[in-house]
Amino acid sequence: MPKEFQFQVSPQVAASEDLLAQQVAKFCKITPEEILKVVVLKRSFDARQKAVKVNVKGIVYLIGEDYIPAKIELPDYPNVANRQEVIVVGAGPAGLFAALQLIELGLKPIVLERGKEVRGRRRDLKAINVDGIVNEDSNYCFGEGGAGTYSDGKLYTRSKKRGDIDRILELFVGFGATPDIMVDAHPHIGTNKLPKIIQDIREQIIACGGEVLFETRVTDFVVKNSEMQGVVLQNGNIISANKVILATGHSARDIFELLHKKNIYIEAKPFALGVRAEHPQELIDRIQYSCDYRGEFLPPAPYSVVKQVNGRGMYSFCMCPGGVIAPCATSPGEVVTNGWSPSKRDQPTANSGIVVELKLEDFKPYQKFGPLAGMEFQKAIEQKAWHLAGETQKVPAQRMVDFTQNKISQNIPKTSYVPGTTSIEMGEVFPGFLSQIMRQGFVEFGKSMKGYMTNEAILHAPESRTSSPVRIPRDSFSLEHLQIKGLYPCGEGAGYAGGIISAAIDGEKCALKVAESLNLK
Q1: pLDDT interval class at 192 (50, 70, 90)
Q2: CA–CA dist 514, 460 (Å, integer)
Q3: Which pLDDT tens digit goes with each residue over 237-264?
Q4: Distance between CA 243 and CA 87 in Å, rounded?
Q5: Tag placement on the chain: N or C end, fewer CB within 10 Å?
């Protein structure tokens, strides 16, 4: 009978099948020659002690036992070309996984994406990076695959209650992701590899009779007697359907404005906002691994820090080891930062959003905008940063220690942010209360991570698109909008997810509820 094992080993042992087999044999009190196969189920790094260890959990099969390699296969998707149609607005993870689930349930998805297909987006990303030109429909936030495609591809969620995480990971593997994502505690595909996977998902949807339409922006909803009837496109065409999954992402401000204009109920939602901090990766490695040189068996070190400052949480967000900072504006006249890492995480710098939780009371100066107050607060900071940095895609920047001391940095070294930086006293970008919390917070961070508080670290502003500033309320059971029957607010943009995995899970949930309402499940 296969034996289970769980222990800690050195990174070198974890990286070698032979050395790991020897350790398993010792743990199970058998000889290495008796082992047929060692299967690792879970793997995570533990850097709490001076010597970094790897937690390994798995199963060992002995000679003579039946070992059948696990093979992850995609569901047997039916052809739905002539089935009932469901509109899915947005081709991010929520929309794409909703579409796949709809097909599995025998419904035809019509996916409407305002941006371009995944490869076509690259020209527009080059334009914003090199020329400072923002395409409002095709950028780091909008386009096939959504914000996660070209901004990192992290595949973990803090909430284990959202749904079946392993199912989503298995689907990613089925579409070409490395099986390692099923094993690693913090799975990551990488911005360089995710586009091909997204493209294969789209091709599967089309092969099954679904539709995926790019550069197709929804500009209005057709509602009759508080029931969805369809959507209006920017060219004036109407696509009719009485089921609409709204999965537009956290930056679709025009959709929030449309809902508000049509008196379709939405509400302001607290979110977090701050800066993106960049350190040399070697420095983070030294801090996290307590060594001068990381070596070949340890990955570039991540970090996670949370502090309470003046009654508010200040924390690291979307930390990118061996990564770069990217320009993520979605309209001219604003600057926004985000971070990403390639699959090898081999860039010389590490960056992380460092953000402060906001409260609804912070949006009082914008209360005339009603439920859009938080969005206007967010927008005002992004526009101010754009103005202060020179009205290009350069961003305000400051050395970390200088920021805590209210000193303008005399020089800013070249950072991974391609459009460039402008030396600014960051307090000019943010409201006073927010600047003060961040100044105190960085000092506290430095106490927890010796060496983190340094002028080698460069702050870029703002990191403002952490989550949606709006929630589109829905019934907790049917997942339909509280007011409009047949409208299913979904994913990050509606306020029900916070990353690729949770958005994908929410997309599947909404698709299941659509099928239930049609008595198909």
Answers
A1: confident
A2: 42
A3: 999 999 999 999 999 999 999 999 999 9
A4: 6
A5: N
